[in-house]
Design goal:
It is a single chain. By secondary structure, the chain is mainly beta. Among the domains are: about 45 residues, no CATH class; about 60 residues, no CATH class; about 40 residues, no CATH class; about 100 residues, Jelly Rolls (Sandwich). The chain is built from one helix and 26 strands. Strands 18, 19, 20, 21, 22, 23, 24, 25 and 26 form a nine-stranded mixed sheet that branches. A five-stranded antiparallel sheet has the order 13-14-15-16-17, with no helix packed on it. A four-stranded antiparallel sheet has the order 3-4-5-6, with no helix packed on it.
Length: about 425
């Protein structure tokens, strides 16, 4: 037996025949590279030491690539699947900063043949408040947005407090908007054609009621309900009472009810003034007088004893308390408009015909000459002289004056000075 270093290129060993082993062809101890088949002992299952693992140990201790079955917790850095992923269990937890899903549709409660549970998306808010939820309310058969104390473990009918949805809504909106503060806001709501039944409505701004030809506008800045020309405020089942202003400038308060109905204006004092409000037209006072004005000057007032008039009183004939004159220069036949007048003649006389005057009419004839004038009783007329009751033509002496009063269209009485 020899001890020490041996320097050789090739070793020959006896395995029944002389075998040569080239030293330079042997693997090094540090990071050796093996060729051929290397056989090592198989460690015990579950061995987690630094022993070399045989293929038998790996196959028996780890899940295969095809349909692997994992037990316990599986941890990895990045995982890419090219096939379908099925996760069975109670809860799937994804703890990432953001979750991105490239699918177009996200299906909840997939595969259910029927459903009694509310479904949706919960947003945990921690100590900020109850969880936020966007849900399908199965019992109400409606979508609901709000807050809830429910969690991901909740089932059945989840209690949801309705929240506020801020959004621009386009398209047709059907159903009822309800609540104690149902408000539609925005610059314009031209597409709202019906609001159903409202228990109250507050509009903070202008409101236009569009008619077939004429509109009515509530003008906020003017604090006024403004009717366009020819737009009417109409009252009554039969449109019996109307207030309107026409394009031509005329204004109307019109009542078209039955003839025995009244248009009542009830007030202890009614005052009518001009458009500028600086001139009186009429004043009506309860238990007092009626005052009528001309150019802001009172001309007539009713009193306890009758009527007080300031100025002249006239009728179709002329001024009252004055007898109008009808001067004639030749023969004259009296006409109906001579009633209440004095026929002033100097020649030709006057003829009184039948059915010209009416009962109660009276006229005066004055002879403005120094000669007699004849008053002719026309055909069908009976003219009685008051002094003797005789009838027929009469003579009115120089400067004479008589009055004729008609009892009827064909009967009259004549009396005066210079009459024969």
């Amino acid at each position: 037996m020899a001890y020490g270093k041996i320097k050789a290129d090739t070793l020959i060993y006896d395995d029944g025949g002389d075998q040569q082993l080239t030293i330079s062809g042997l693997a090094t101890l540090a990071s050796p590279t093996f060729t051929g088949t290397v056989t090592i002992p198989t460690p015990t299952a579950g061995d987690n030491t630094t022993k070399a693992a045989s293929t038998a140990f790996v196959v028996n201790g780890f899940a295969p690539k095809a349909a692997p079955a994992f037990t316990g917790n599986a941890t990895g850095a990045n995982l890419t699947l090219s096939g379908n992923l099925t996760v069975n269990g109670t809860t799937t937890t994804v703890a990432t900063t953001n979750t991105t899903i490239t699918d177009n549709l996200l299906e909840l409660n997939s595969g259910a043949s029927s459903n009694a549970n509310d479904s949706g998306i919960l947003i945990e808010r921690g100590s900020t408040g109850d969880n936020a939820i966007i849900a399908w309310d199965e019992s109400a058969d409606k979508f609901t947005v709000g807050t809830t104390t429910g969690t991901a473990d909740s089932t059945g009918n989840i209690s949801i407090t309705t929240g506020t949805l801020v959004a621009n809504v386009e398209g047709n909106v059907t159903g009822n908007a309800s609540g104690t503060a149902a408000t539609v806001t925005g610059a314009a709501q031209t597409a709202i054609t019906s609001v159903g039944t409202l228990t109250g409505l507050t509009v903070n701004g202008d409101v236009t009621l569009t008619g077939a030809a004429n509109n009515v506008v509530w003008d906020k800045s003017d604090n006024a309900l403004e009717f366009a020309d020819d737009a009417k405020a109409v009252f009554g089942a039969g449109s019996d009472f109307q207030i309107y202003h026409e394009t031509n400038g005329h204004s109307y308060v019109k009542s078209s009810t039955a003839t025995n109905s009244y248009l009542n204006i009830d007030s202890t004092k009614l005052r009518i003034r001009n458009a500028a409000g600086d001139e009186e037209l009429a004043i009506f006072t309860q238990d007092g007088g009626v005052e009528l004005y001309h150019n802001d000057v009172k001309k007539l007032e009713t009193t306890t004893n009758g009527i007080t008039v300031a100025g002249l009183v006239t009728d179709t004939i002329g001024k009252l308390r004055a007898i109008p004159s009808n001067a004639q220069g030749g023969a004259y036949t009296a006409v109906a408009t001579d009633a209440g007048k004095a026929i002033y003649i100097s020649t030709g006389g006057v003829t009184i015909n039948n059915s010209v005057f009416s009962a109660g009419d009276a006229l005066t004839i004055i002879n403005n000459s120094g000669s007699d004038q004849t008053i002719t009783q026309g055909s069908g007329v009976t003219l009685y002289q008051c002094t003797d009751g005789t009838t027929g033509n009469r003579t009115l002496g120089a400067r004479g004056m008589v009055t004729i009063w008609f009892h009827a269209a064909a009967t009259a009485y004549i009396s005066g000075a210079g009459l024969s």
